[in-house]
Amino acid sequence: MRNALKTALIMLSLLVAADAMAQVPSLARCTRSANLLACVDGDGNAYSVNTAGNTIYLRGFEMAGKRHWVQTNSRYGQLVFFTGIASDGEAWVGYNQRVGWTTINRFSSSGGSSAKFTCNRISGC
């Protein structure tokens, strides 16, 4: 699985689990407004998260692969569906479902990656 997809899924899991995102100075430098968070890490990777109602828009740049990617997440109660595409043509779809303190995650990509994993606030992923 490509780094951008991993980063997007981990970021989405954190957003879903915590319903908020905090700045971590040692990992990335972030700027935030009412509904936009934009970050750049020490390796030159960049991403932004924009919220509009029940929809979250992610956009990023992966320095190692020199590729841009976008992802849209739509929330319906405890269920979040997401779709994304990268500048090299890779596309992915998936969902996250929150059940109590547990988040069930499933995705597949046009690059052949697919997975189902569970995250918990106490034990992690």
UniProtKB/TrEMBL annotation:
Residues 1-22 form the signal peptide. The keyword Signal applies. It comes from Pseudomonas laurylsulfatiphila. This is Glutamine synthetase. It comes from the Bacteria. The lineage of its organism: Bacteria, Pseudomonadati, Pseudomonadota, Gammaproteobacteria, Pseudomonadales. Keywords: Signal.
